[in-house]
Amino acid sequence: MKIGICGATGYSGRELIRILLHHPKVQIAFLTSEQYANQSIADVYPELRSKISVLCQPVDQLPPKGTLDFVFLALPHTVSMKVAKVFLAQGTRVIDLSGDYRLSASLYETWYQHPHEDVENLSKAVYGLSEIFRDKIKKATFVSNPGCYPTAASLGLVPALKGGFIDPQGIVIDAKSGVSGAGRGLSLGTHFVEVYENMKAYKIAVHQHTPEIEQVLKNFTSANIHVTFVPHLIPLEKGILSTMYAFLAKKVKTENLVEAYQKFYQNEPFIRVLPLGNYPQTKNVYGSNFCDIGLQVDERTNRVIVISVIDNMVKGASGQAVQNMNLMCGLAETMGLL
Ligand SMILES: NC(=O)c1ccc[n+]([C@@H]2O[C@H](COP(=O)([O-])OP(=O)(O)OC[C@H]3O[C@@H](n4cnc5c(N)ncnc54)[C@H](OP(=O)(O)O)[C@@H]3O)[C@@H](O)[C@H]2O)c1
To answer: Which has the closest alpha carbon to 74: 91, 89, 54, 56?
Structure first.
C-alpha cells in the first residue's frame, strides 16, 4: 500500500515513519511539513538517512486521487479536519491522530474552543481504541485515533466497569506524561530548563481528554459518568503513567480482580495484566505498543486502584494508529509492531 503521512516532521509523524519502515505491506510515498517543505525527511531526522529520502510537501499540495491507498494525519487539531475532508472526498482511507474527530461537534466546541468545520465526516469516524472497538474498526474507512491519556485511562478502567467491580461515580484519574506528549513545537512550558527536575499539574478539570474518556466509559455503564482527571507534566521524554481510583461496587480481592482482567484481555497481544503485587513502570513499555496494567484493592478504603502505562507516542498515538490500519486492511493486527 502507498502511504501518506501529513505532519511527518512532528513526534507522532516521526514515530509513524519509524514503525512503517519495518512494516512489510507498506511503502511511504508522501510526507508533509510546512517548515521543511521541499526538504528530505532524512535532513530533518538524520537517523533516517539511507532508510528513506522522501521530500516533504506543504499540506496544500496534496497528491491527486488514486495516488495513495492510506493516509495518516499527525497534524495539530483544527488543521487535521481541513485535510481529512480532502482525502475522504477522494475515497482514500484515513486515520486521524488529532482530536478533531473524537467528540460530537458541540462537545468539540466546548472543550477545544473552536467550532467544528467538518461535521459531515464526524459521524463517519470510528473511534480507534483497538482492543475495545475492534469490530467497528475492521469495517471502517475513517478512524479517529484516541488521545494518549484516554488510551491509558480507558484500557485501565473498562474491564472494572464492564465487570461491575467499580462504582461509575467518583472515578479519579491521576495521570503523568512525558514532555513529548506536547509535540515538537517550542513553548516556554515544555523547554528543558522549565521541565527538568520539575513536576506540575496542568489543565485541571478543563483538559480536552476528559470528555473523550467519559465517552468511552459510557459504553459500559448506564450511569452518567463524570471523571476527575488531573494530568501532570513530568521530566521524561515519553511515557504515560495513569493511576486511577474508584470505589468498589462489590467485595472483591485483588487476586480475583487480577484474574478478571487477565481473562478480559487474554487474547490481546498488546495488553499485559501484571501478576498480583506487580505494578507497571513506564520503562517497561518504552518504544513499544504495549499497555501494562497493575491492580490493587484497598480493602481499608473500599477502593480499587488501577495503574496503566503506555508509551504516549506508540500505543498512545502512532503504534495504535498502525494497529488500526492493520485492522482496517485485514492484515495481522500485530504486523510491524512486535
Ligand atoms: N505527541 C503525542 O504523544 C501525541 C499522542 C496522541 C495524539 N497526538 C496528536 O497527534 C497530532 C500530532 O502530534 P505531535 O505531537 O506529533 O505534534 P508535533 O510534534 O507538534 O507535530 C506537528 C506536525 O504538524 C505539522 N504542522 C504544524 N502546524 C501545521 C499547519 N498549520 N499546517 C500544516 N502542518 C502543520 C508540523 O510540521 P512542521 O512543523 O514541520 O511545519 C509537524 O509535522 C496532534 O493533533 C496531537 O494532539 C500526539
So the answer is: 56
Which residue range is the domain that position 7 belongs to?
2-124
Nearest residue to 132 (alpha-carbon basis) of 156, 112, 110: 156
CA of 183 to the centre of ligand 1 (A): 6
> Are residue 160 and residue 279 in the same domain, yes or no?
yes
The reply to whether 57 and 166 lie within a common domain is no
User: What is the per-residue pLDDT for 167?
Assistant: 98
8 and 113 in a common domain:
yes
Cα 62 from chain centroid? 25
Query: Is 170 found in the same domain as 118?
Result: no
Cβ–ligand 1 distance for 62 under 6 Å, the answer no
Helix ranges restricted to H, the chain: 11-20, 41-44, 80-90, 105-112, 119-122, 134-139, 148-162, 192-195, 209-217, 254-264, 319-328
The grid cell for 143 is 478512524
Q: Give the Cα-Cα-Cα angle 108, 155, 235 (nearest 5 degrees).
A: 80
State the pLDDT at residue 85. 97
CATH number of the domain that residue 20 is part of: 3.40.50.720
Name which residue sits closest to atom 40 of ligand 1, judged by CA: 33
Provide the CB-side half-sphere exposure for 182 (13 A, CA): 22
Q: Is residue 140 part of a domain?
A: no
The two most distant CA atoms of the chain are separated, in Å, by 63
Return the CA Rg of the chain: 20
Which residue among 19, 34, 209 is best mutated to probe the pocket of ligand 1, counting the most ligand atoms within 8 A of its Cβ? 34
Q: Which residues are catalytic?
A: 148
Does the pTM exceed 0.85?
A: yes
State which residues of the chain have pLDDT below 50.
Answer: none
What is the sign of the dihedral through the CA atoms of 151, 153, 156 and 161?
A: negative
Specify the number of domains making up the chain.
2
